[in-house]
Amino acid sequence: METQSICGLCLERLKYQIKNAKKRAMDSGSNSGCGRIMLECYNTADPDEIVDILEIYHAKDRTLQGVKETLSELAYSASVLTREPLQFDFSEEGHLGLFLLLDATVAN
Questions:
Q1: What is the pLDDT of residues 79-89, one digit of tens each?
Q2: Are the C-beta atoms of 54 and 9 separated by less than 8 Å?
Q3: Where are the beta strands (DSSP E) in the chain?
Q4: Residue-wise over 75-98: b if at least 16 C-beta within 10 A, else e?
Q5: Which residue has the higher pLDDT, 67 or 34?
Q6: CA dist list (Å): 5 to 70, 77, 78, 88, 98
Q7: Which strands form 96-101's sheet, in the order they lie side by side?
Q8: What is the enclosing helix (H) or strand (E) of 7?
Q9: 45-49, 51-55, 100-104: which has the minimum mean pLDDT?
Q10: What is the CB neighbour count within 10 angstroms for residue 31?
Q11: What are the phi and psi torsion angles at 98 (to 5°)?
């Protein structure tokens, strides 16, 4: 079976992670105050490493701001395809991560 991916994100893996994250949030009762759950952490804030990890070679502007704009577009596309609100952001440690937004909806 062939899995679909968008850039470096495997959609089947994302759906599985989303399902597990929602279940953990419901089981722990933390759904109301958390706001978001990190699905993946990439352990870097370096724009060149982010481009390589997520295979966003089409990003013309390889500065951190340019990569953030490309990641925003990627998160939107992944959100539409998974029907779940997703966002790339930086963790408290300063590492890039992909987050599931619990109190948001997907804009079409």
A1: 999 999 999 99
A2: yes
A3: 5-6, 9-10, 36-41, 86-90, 96-101
A4: beebbebbebbbbbeeeeeeebbb
A5: 67
A6: 16, 11, 9, 17, 15
A7: 36-41, 96-101, 86-90
A8: none
A9: 100-104
A10: 15
A11: -105, 125
CA 94 to chain centre: 15
Residues in the chain: 108
- Those residues with Cβ within 8 angstroms of residue 42's Cβ, 6 or more apart along the chain or in another chain: 49, 50, 53, 54, 95, 96, 97
Report d(CA 102, CA 30) in Å as an integer.
10
What is the SS3 assignment for 85? Answer: coil
Q: CB-side exposure of 19: number of CA atoms within 13 Å?
A: 7
* pLDDT over 90 percentage in the chain: 72
Give pTM, 2 decimals: 0.86
* Paired tokens of 5: 């991916």
